[in-house]
Amino acid sequence: ICACVSSLIYSLLSQSPDASVVQKQNCSWLFVTHDLCRKEDAISGLQKASGDAVLKFEPFVLHVQCRALEDAQLLHGVAIDSGFRNSGITVGKKGKIIM
Which UniProt keywords are given for this protein, alphabetically ordered (predicted)? Predict the structure, then answer.
């Protein structure tokens, strides 16, 4: 089982990117967290922007390897019923079943 939750703010227009900061094609990260994002932290990050800024929230991601397709189908039904609309089942070439 692998799970990740994250939210971040990044600047789209960075005039002088800092080499010590993680870069993403013409962007510099203003604020990144895997914890609850407080309003004060977001505002502090936005004050570092030299241009436009975008708030991006990455929803909860969970990967589960199931022993049988029936197990994956059951778990998939629970996920859909719980509101996780972007859920799916993948069967790999070697028979790995990932939900």
Answer: Methyltransferase, S-adenosyl-L-methionine, Transferase, tRNA processing
